[in-house]
Structures are given as structure tokens and as C-alpha cells.
Specification:
Blueprint lengths: L2 E12 L5 H11 L4 E9 L2 E8 L2 H10 L3 E13 L6 H10 L3 E9 L2 E8 L4 H8 L3
Antiparallel strand pairs: 1-3, 1-4, 2-3, 4-6, 5-6
Helix pairs in contact: 3-4
């Protein structure tokens, strides 16, 4: 099974206009905040981003101080070698544990893959156990 760990995600709303995400990215760069993941989408005329920082406390402080942070929670980061069926063992463990996924994102590059899983809050401990997450 791939390597898994609990991570903290942060949600913020941004303007739904060209360059809005760039401004956030430049701010994160200025603050030397490295990311494990970033997801952005637009709905109802607003932009929304979900960010997973390598240093969650640093991001929490940065966004809370400017009123940007609207939600934070727990997700799971899975990573490993990119090969056919790379996520299958992890997904099988979750199915056997009775965990239903709320959302999943996955990408592969350079022979490695990374995936972020979201589950219902009541399934966090069950998910961590099934994935043997650190």
C-alpha cells in the first residue's frame, strides 16, 4: 500500500477573476509557504481554494491574520510510485473499512503519484487506521 498521512487543509474564498490565484500564489511564495496540494474552483460567481501546506501552522497564522481563512479540516495525503493500480490497495482498504469517500484528487508525474482524499469527519479515525496513516 502507498504511504499515507493525515494533513490539514485550509479553505479560502478568492475573487473569480484573472490573476486572483496568482496573487495568492505570490503571497504564499513571499511568506515561504511550501504546498503539498492546491485545488481551486469557481462556483456561484466566487472562487474557492483548498490548500494543503507543508507547515499548516504557518499558513493558518498567515490567513487568519488577514481574514482569508474560512474553514480548515483534515484530509489524507497518499503518495507512492506511479504504476498501474497505484491507488487500488488504499481504496480496497477503505472499502473494507466501510469508508465512503467525499472527494479525491490524484496526479502523477516523474514516476510518482500523489492523491488527496476527503472523508466525512466521523470517518477520520477509521480512515487513518485503514490507511495506516501517520
Amino acid at each position: 500500500m502507498a504511504k499515507s498521512k493525515r494533513v490539514t487543509y485550509f479553505k479560502a474564498r478568492i475573487e473569480n477573476r484573472p490573476g486572483a490565484l496568482l496573487a495568492v500564489a505570490e503571497d504564499l511564495k513571499t511568506k515561504n509557504l511550501d504546498l503539498l496540494g492546491l485545488k481551486g474552483l469557481a462556483h456561484a460567481g466566487e472562487g474557492e481554494i483548498l490548500v494543503i501546506a507543508k507547515d499548516p501552522e504557518k499558513l493558518r497564522e498567515a490567513w487568519a491574520s488577514v481574514g482569508m481563512l474560512i474553514e480548515e479540516g483534515t484530509a489524507f495525503y497518499i503518495s507512492g510510485e506511479d504504476k498501474t493500480g497505484a491507488l487500488a490497495a488504499s481504496l480496497d482498504a477503505l472499502a473494507k473499512a466501510g469508508v465512503n469517500l467525499a472527494a479525491i484528487e490524484a496526479v502523477a508525474a516523474g514516476g510518482k503519484f500523489g492523491s488527496i482524499l476527503w472523508v466525512a469527519p466521523e470517518d477520520l479515525d477509521k480512515t487513518a487506521q485503514a490507511l495506516e496513516a501517520s
